[in-house]
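User: Hey, quick favor. My workstation is busy. Could you predict this chain's structure for me?
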Amino acid sequence: MERSCITYYLEMTSASELKEKPQRHDLQIIECEVPQAEFNRFLYKLVGTPWEWGDLDSWSSSQWQALVEQECHRTWVAYHRGAIAGYYELYRPDGRNCEIRYFGLAPQFLGCGFGGALLSHAVRSAWEWHGTERVWVHTCTFDHPAALQNYQARGLRIFKQEEAEPSQSSLG
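Assistant: No problem, here it is.
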């Protein structure tokens, strides 16, 4: 029997609330300033596959392109010794509320101490994006077990949670 999924929505309403974790000298985080839809698709699969992210699996190349080429969408990639350690996307369609749309580490870099620093970078980048008034993110119980704790440790607060029951078809 499948377990239910709890989705947590977290927010930060002031840059001063960020509790930063220092970035290690061997982790470089670089903005992908030239949008590349297929690169974002690759990053999404690299980071999301272990957690069964699937909401964008059916997207076409043109749908990916339409997302990443918007002015309100930005992507950063974390590198460790030349390998992709993780990434995040910021999405701010209303010009004020900045969503950390996707965030995560590549499987071989889980447990290396990069998550807090990468999330600190994501939150700081969201606040440095002129016009941001609020930063928010959502996670769920199917994500990495430390995800919610990492968001809260950086200063994000839960403002809503929802529980979804397993689908009837999966109950056998």
